[in-house]
Design a protein that fits this description.
- The protein has about 375 residues and is of the alpha/beta class.
- It has a single domain (about 5-375), classed as TIM Barrel (Alpha-Beta Barrel).
- Helix content is about 35%, strand content about 15%.
- It has helices spanning about 20-30, 35-55, 75, 120-130, 160-185, 195-200, 215-235, 260-270, 320-330, 355-375; strands at about 80-85, 90-95, 95, 110-115, 140, 190, 240-245, 275-280, 300-310, 335-340.
- The strands form three sheets. Strands 5-6-7-8-9-10 form a six-stranded parallel beta sheet. The chain has a two-stranded antiparallel ribbon with strand order 1-4. Strands 2-3 form a two-stranded antiparallel ribbon.
- Strand 5, helix 5 (about 160-185) and strand 6 (about 190) form a beta-alpha-beta unit.
- Helix 4 packs parallel to helix 5 (about 160-185).
- The longest helix has 23 residues, at about 160-185.
């Protein structure tokens, strides 16, 4: 087990993009701004993000994903062999389905054999290695979600099935992580793996066009995630490998609902990460009972409870957060628990419907609660 178990306050990843960065990205995409000028705007935003985290007392830093259009950049922005292909999803906010105008519909599909076309995380890590005031982590989408860029008409000539595509994505991700460790000294990797939502939420209609059962989907996802994590730990036994799972986070909306019960025994027992970052800010995530499957003891993973929402401005009651941590400690030893927001603040560049001041207060609350519980 890595020393990361001593960190009880964590931030999942993304932070709100300031208006000047959104303007710079829009101008760059129109051909009105040079790449160097875009990079300067990104650098400025990341420096501000580092100050926000340091002021709050966060000890494991991220760059806020300021260089990305979305958290899916590893598949959408960094892979060659893909073409634009709208991917419609159903999103909910305030109990209502979002209108088509609000719905995230951007996407890509693999149209040829995939390869890495750029080194986005390398650029991110190089800057963080030089500027972060402490330990930093690099977040990336797990290739177990590679099926999201498989399209039956577009992808089938190169990859007859999503599984075929994922098999080519696995070595690309492992090579990317090897480079992050060797070239930039990265010590903490976080894989965002939301494919479990296809099993957690029985209503989901994206089960590879209905050709696979929930049991088959769980088997496939566990297989890929466990293979990737074991390969990372085999090559780099001293780095922290974490996994984040939520139910969607786009403009303060969500895409899935359901307890971890359907995936817990296999997920917690077979995917050997050091830390699980789990959404737990609303009843949509169910109770803490599935945590009974988390291995305990000095070598067991840390469970980071995502109790503080990033979707609305209001702050949770500090006493209520402490009570919820105590409830979770019935299933996982207190020393193996931590607290975080339920997700990032800006999974896409437009971000959630809160302010930067709201974001700061949320991070302050995470840290102050951790100090109250763990000292």
């Amino acid at each position: 087990m890595t020393p990361s178990r001593s960190y009880h306050a964590e931030h999942v990843g993304s932070l709100l993009r300031p208006p000047y960065l959104l303007d710079a990205r829009a101008a760059f995409e129109k051909g009105e701004l040079a790449i160097a000028e875009l990079r300067a705007a990104e650098d400025r935003a990341i420096d501000e993000n580092l100050r926000i985290q340091a002021d709050a007392g966060v000890e494991v830093f991220t760059d806020g994903e300021a260089r990305r259009e979305s958290w899916r950049a590893g598949l959408f922005e960094s892979v060659d062999g893909v073409v634009p292909a709208p991917r419609l999803m159903t999103w909910y906010r305030d109990g209502k389905e979002l209108t088509p105008e609000e719905t995230l519909s951007d996407g890509v599909a693999a149209a040829a054999k995939v390869s890495r076309k750029g080194d986005l995380t390398g650029t991110e890590a190089a800057f963080m290695a030089a500027r972060a005031p402490g330990l930093f982590k690099v977040t990336m989408i797990s290739v177990s979600m590679g099926g999201m860029i498989w399209h039956p008409e577009i992808s089938a000539p190169a990859y007859p099935t999503p599984a075929d595509l994922i098999e080519d994505l696995i070595p690309l991700q492992l090579a990317e992580i090897d480079a992050l460790v060797a070239k930039h000294g990265v010590r903490w990797i976080q894989l965002d793996s939301l494919a479990y939502n296809r099993v957690i939420d029985a209503r989901r209609d994206d089960r590879i066009r209905g050709v696979r059962t929930p049991e088959e989907l769980l088997e496939a996802t566990i297989d890929v995630d466990s293979r990737v994590v074991r390969a990372i730990k085999r090559e780099h036994p001293d780095i922290t490998v974490a996994m984040h799972i939520c139910r969607g986070n786009y403009r303060s909306s969500w895409a899935a609902s359901g307890s971890y019960e359907a995936v817990a025994e296999r997920l917690f027992g077979e995917v050997p990460v050091d830390r699980f970052l789990l959404e737990y800010d609303t009843e949509r995530a169910g109770g803490f009972e599935p945590l009974r499957f988390v291995p305990s003891g000095p070598d067991g993973p840390v469970v980071v409870l995502g109790l503080v929402t990033t979707k609305v401005p209001g702050l949770e009651d500090p006493d209520g957060l402490v009570r919820r941590i105590d409830e979770a400690a019935r299933y996982v030893p207190l020393d193996n628990l931590a607290i975080s927001p339920q997700c990032g603040f800006a999974s896409g560049s437009l971000g959630n419907l809160i302010s930067i001041d709201d974001q700061r207060r949320k991070l302050d609350l995470v840290v102050s609660t951790a100090q109250r519980v763990w000292g």
